[in-house]
Write a structure and sequence with these properties.
single chain; about 400 residues; mainly beta; 7-stranded mixed sheet; elongated; disordered C terminus
Length: about 400
């Protein structure tokens, strides 16, 4: 009996274009006395491969049948001794790396183990990991191994992929020799930044706080409030901070709410129905009573588990802030202020209010974050007590 275990040392989140490294260990556990007497165990081969599965909702998405077989067709054809990483998976394989052979004819004595390192690069044009209402993209690193005259066993390790557009050619961001100062007494050294370092520099630039954006919120009766957003581009895990100013408002606002939402829009050629609308998912909501309030603010965190905006041939994902304002149709008188500071006064609101609700959607941009921050725990999966 051979146990296969695998670990992603750096974590379970990567940027498209990065190298995924996995350490795979094969151990002859030799659990029974009979196996110990028989001696070493032998594996014919073992391979590893990265693949991305795309599954869609049949009621919302219509895909043109591809010449490639789906995973259901693959799993029902061929021999069980072949290495099919997507065997038994739902949907279609939209991305698949070349399989890497780890070894051939491996013999392990009872209690002996041997480790191999698998490395492969995620294509820079790969879609991100995403679990939407109509479309899902999921990544897995699949390890297959087979003992002689036995079916192939598979070990799958799920991981997450974030996409930052504009990193196709990282040579643009590297420092060349012609721009570095020369010193005849020092040995020239060329600085070469990794893709992760370059991505962090790009993210820091596009999400930096610049000039604040001011919006006047009005309806048919006048001005409701003034909203100030300090920036419009955010990374996963950041807080969206904005300020409301009701000082110059001519329309009384009783209550407001701000909700972080994303919009999932299916491309026209893949829609099941011609007039099919977008699917909206809400994440974080801030709600506040603001009657007689002059100034207040909001603080909405962007979840680390969310998917940044992206677009593929099937779906387009965008982000927005959804505002709802409950305004009074009639002016609400304020309480009389006491003439002396030591005096107090009480005010009782009206039992009923004639109100109306107005909505407003403000588009924002959500970008990836450092994959090390998004990795909560190291992804570790193992197959135990499985005969190969």
């Amino acid at each position: 009996m051979i146990e296969v275990s695998a670990i992603l040392p750096r974590g379970s989140v990567y940027l498209a274009g990065e190298v995924v490294k996995c350490v795979i260990t094969f151990t002859n556990v030799g659990a029974t006395h009979e196996q110990v007497q028989n001696g070493s165990e032998c594996l014919a081969w073992a391979s590893a491969q990265i693949h991305c599965q795309c599954s869609v909702s049949e009621t919302r998405v219509h895909l043109v049948r591809s010449e490639r077989m789906s995973t259901e067709e693959v799993s029902t054809t061929g021999c069980d001794t072949s290495f099919v990483p997507s065997k038994g998976e739902r949907g279609l394989t939209v991305l698949s790396s070349k399989p890497r052979i780890l070894f051939c004819d491996l013999r392990l004595a009872p209690g002996e183990s041997k480790s191999y390192t698998f490395e492969d690069t995620i294509p820079s044009d790969a879609p991100p990991s995403y679990r939407g209402q109509a479309v899902k993209y999921s990544y897995k690193l699949t390890i297959g191994a087979q003992k002689f005259d036995h079916p192939t066993k598979l070990l799958r390790i799920p991981f997450r992929v974030l996409v930052l557009h504009g990193l196709n050619d990282i040579s643009v961001y590297t420092e060349g020799e012609e721009v570095t100062p020369s010193n005849p007494f020092l040995k020239p050294q060329q600085t070469e930044n990794s893709l992760l370092d370059i991505a962090m520099q790009v993210l820091a630039t596009i999400t930096a706080r610049k000039a604040p954006h001011s919006y006047n919120i009005t309806n048919a009766k006048g001005k409701v409030a003034k909203f100030i957003l300090f920036k419009q581009a955010y990374k996963l895990g950041e807080d969206i901070i904005g300020a409301f100013d009701f000082t110059d408002g001519t329309v009384t606002c009783v209550q407001f709410s701000v909700t972080l939402q994303n919009e999932e829009q299916i491309s026209e050629e893949c829609r099941r129905k011609p007039g099919q609308g977008t699917a909206v998912t809400s994440f974080v909501k801030h709600q506040e009573m603001c009657l007689h309030t002059q100034k207040t603010h909001i603080n909405i965190p962007v979840p680390l588990t969310a998917t940044p905006a992206f677009i593929t041939d099937i779906v387009c994902l965008r982000w927005r802030l959804h505002f709802e304002f409950v305004t009074s149709c009639e002016p609400i008188p304020e309480s009389e202020r006491p003439s002396h500071p030591d005096e107090s006064a009480s005010w009782r609101g009206p039992p009923t209010l004639n109100v109306e609700t107005m909505i407003w959607d403000l588009p924002i941009k959500i970008f990836p974050t450092n994959p090390l921050h998004a990795s909560s725990v190291t992804c570790t999966k193992s197959l135990s007590n499985v005969q190969i």
